[in-house]
Amino acid sequence: GNEKTVTVEYDKVFAGIKSANMYSNGKKYNTLYYATNDSTITAYIRVKEQLKEVPTFTFKVGNTTYVAPEVKEAFHNADDKAAGIYRYQTTIKVADFNPENGDVSFVVSNIQDKAGNKGADVTAVTNKNVVRVDRTAPKSQYVAILSNKTENHKYVTNGQLVRVLAAFDEEINVTDKFVLTINGKNYKFQRSQDTTKYEYIVEFRIP
Hints:
This protein is mainly beta. It has helices at residues 78-83, 94-97; strands at 17-24, 28-29, 32-35, 40-47, 56-61, 64-67, 72-74, 86-93, 102-103, 105-109, 130-133, 140-147, 161-168, 179-182, 185-188, 190-191, 198-205. The strands form five sheets. It has a four-stranded antiparallel beta sheet with strand order 1-4-8-7. A hairpin with a 2-residue loop joins strand 2 (28-29) and strand 3 (32-35). The longest helix is centred in the middle third of the chain and has 6 residues, at 78-83. The chain is elongated and about 105 Å long.
């Protein structure tokens, strides 16, 4: 009779996770990403084989948890595609997550290859990235204006130096927009030397 050859692939071990990462489209300082109300958070895992179905990504900040509504399968780059390394990625909106302030953690679960071999949950990134949610605007604590006039700091004359101090309850992102404007001229603030305070200083001289 007719014969038919069937190839059976024996697979009893989950191949493993290549890497895991999380980041935000907000401000970045080295490996620290800030996420605010209008930010997104992206997390992905790279797996050494194709999974039976997309895994579940659950994010957490404090007591608030959020399950990503959509996870996509793709290749990270051409080299991964050639090596058969699959990427499973999700991007969520902070506004949908609606967490309190704090560092974001995540768990990737329901990891299972096509043969049914289960992988352990992924609970941390494999690099040093940290995503921190900060949805609260900085609050001003005080503003002080002083001169270098020795007998009375409240009064200045021509040629004297004026110093403006502004303190906040958290660190400020010092940009070209963080300025003091006097008579149409901008003076840029700098962090003061007192590292125990979030104090910023600008100096200018009276013409």
